[in-house]
Amino acid sequence: MNTIISDAVDRSTRRTVIFPTLLGGGLILLMMIIGLLMLLNQGELIQISDGFFYKIMTLHGTGMVGAGALAGAAIMWYFLSQYVSLNKGILTANVVLFLIGVVMVLISIFVFDFAAAWTFLYPLPAISGGMWGVAGATFYLGGMTVIGVGFLLFYLETSRAIIKKYGNLGNALGWPQIFGKKMKEELPPTVVASTMVSIVNITALIAGAAVLIMSIINVFNPSFTIDPLLAKNLIYAFGHIFANSIIYMGVIAVYEVLPKYTGRPWKAYGVFLIAWNMSTLFTIIIYPHHLLMDFAMPKWMLIVGQVLSYCNGLPVLVVTAYGALMIIYRSGIKWDMTSSFFFVSMFGWVIGVVPAIVDATIAINHVMHNTKWVPGHFHMYMGIGACSMIFGFIYYLLTVQGLKKETHVDKLSFWLYILFFLGLTGSFLYSGKVGAPRRWSQHFPEWVRPDQIGAAFAVLIIIATLVFILRLAMKSKYFGSDITEKRTGNDLHA
Ligand code: HEM
Ligand SMILES: [Cu+2]
Fold first, then answer.
1. CATH no. for residue 163?
2. pLDDT score, position 1
3. Which end is more exposed in the chain, N or C (fewer Cβ atoms within 10 Å of the end residue's Cβ)?
4. Whole-prediction pTM value?
5. Which pLDDT score is estimated for 492?
6. Atom 40 of ligand 1, residue of closest alpha carbon
7. What is the pLDDT of residue 486?
8. Which of 28, 42, 64, 388 to mutate to test ligand 1, by most ligand atoms within 8 A of the CB atom?
9. Which ligand is the nearest neighbour of the Cα of 461?
10. How much is the pLDDT for 483?
11. 39, 42, 60, best to mutate for ligand 1 pocket (most atoms within 8 Å of CB)
12. CB of 73 within 8 A of CB of 94?
């Protein structure tokens, strides 16, 4: 078999997604450096003030999820554009609003000392004990609102385009097929996943906008109060769904690209569709697993949160990991940076879900929830799952554009990244196991060693990530040119 990796995406779309991909990847790199600073401080290798720790913790949490979502949105836009007609102005509007929001968030943190974490838990933004004032809270909450509006436009546009082509969102989720109707045209997995993400994220962003705006009013007028438990519900509905959507957008690249490498199609068959429909519903309603310690929550909501958390990611995870294995098995696939990243992203997702499920169990949650066990599991599926999808997409873009230049440096960086990210998350899980709480700037002596080891791992992860980002940055000017026609470099012999 002798294949050339290509796709049906037009050149101007390819050019449009370069910037958000690069911006997302570049911000992830910067936020990793911030993460390293936090670990060095917890490991007593450097000393920063507690105030500064919470400022950069706020930045790291907010920045990572925002950057991952931007790059994920670029992936979704890129592949979805092959099936529906999207208005490029909306992607640009999202990027512009993102940048404005980022500047506002940076001002809130570094000029006005905002440090309430990405969770901006009501009424903390307004009652800071003198740490920051009205300006800090307003810039942060306002910046988040601006970023949210950009993403809301994005998902409204993808929904509009999907509805225009498929009639309604139910069709695009494969309902006719699930109920046994024969379809004229096959439903691409990309459309199914994009529909799911559009639905859950519109829900998330509306919940987020509601609580952000109420919090801003509360900052200016403290006599306007909201029920703190309602606020927490809205915040975690927003945060849980939005953060999870990064993987659901990234996996679109896996569905699109692995078939190109193996010459086997990835079809949206019945079980696949059912799994995505289940995840559409469950992703929205399981966020109460973040409130298992809130005894004032109705008990049934917590039980639903626990039980459905088990069912949530699992169906899509299983059909995806199984599908990937089936597509690869004995296909003679060529392992390059792209295919390796996409394959390993499945692995990161699978292993990251295991400690997450452990934590979603009420009895265990009461012991583990406020420990570093929690950052341990989400760093696993964010770092090895979601980020691998983003880096794989970077190498994929270089490949389709005929710019593939893989060297030993890339291969070495790949292995460094995966192995040391596993190590880093292992160090977090270990800290959790020995009882180190999360979000503490100072650690007791018995918790310090894993922090130091984690910091050493982080240095290598950062170097590797720098290689991936530089690859795209240095070639980005070639995108949109007709270099593709002249390409010879990416023939795959299998
Ligand atoms: C070199 C890589 C990274 C390092 C060294 C790092 C380090 C850290 C540290 C030390 C914390 C605070 C843990 C604590 O509670 O004590 C943290 C929190 C966090 N990290 Fe990372 N991280 C890295 C990569 C990532 C990635 C790739 C993501 C997501 C895409 C991410 C998202 C988060 C989030 C959401 C938090 C929670 C912040 C909070 O509790 O408010 N991190 N990270
Ligand atoms: Cu969650």
1. 1.20.210.10
2. 41
3. N
4. 0.95
5. 43
6. 439
7. 47
8. 64
9. 1
10. 58
11. 60
12. yes
Check if the beta carbon of residue 39 is closer than 8 Å to that of residue 451. Answer: yes
| For ligand 1, atom 38: residue with the closest CA | 61
Per residue in 359-407, pLDDT (tens digit) is: 777 778 888 888 999 899 899 999 999 999 999 999 999 999 988 778 9
What residues in the chain have per-residue pLDDT under 70?
1-3, 482-494
Whole domain around residue 444: which residue ranges?
Answer: 2-493
The number of distinct structural domains making up the chain is: 1
Q: What residues does ligand 1 touch, defined as CB less than 6 Å away?
A: 28, 32, 35-36, 38-39, 57, 60-61, 64-65, 68, 117-118, 372, 375, 379, 382-383, 386-387, 438-439, 458, 461-462
In 3D, which of 466, 483, 379, 476 has the Cα closest to residue 429? 379
- d(Cα 345, Cα 204) in Å, to the nearest integer? 25
Q: Measured between alpha carbons, how far is 216 from 136 in angstroms, rounded to an integer?
A: 11
Q: How many CA atoms lie within 13 A of 55 on its CB side?
A: 18
Sorted by sequence, the CB contacts under 8 Å of residue 127 that are 6+ apart come out as none
In angstroms, the CA 208 to CA 247 distance is: 19
Q: Choose the residue to mutate in 59, 379, 390, 417 for probing ligand 1, maximizing ligand atoms within 8 Å of C-beta.
A: 379
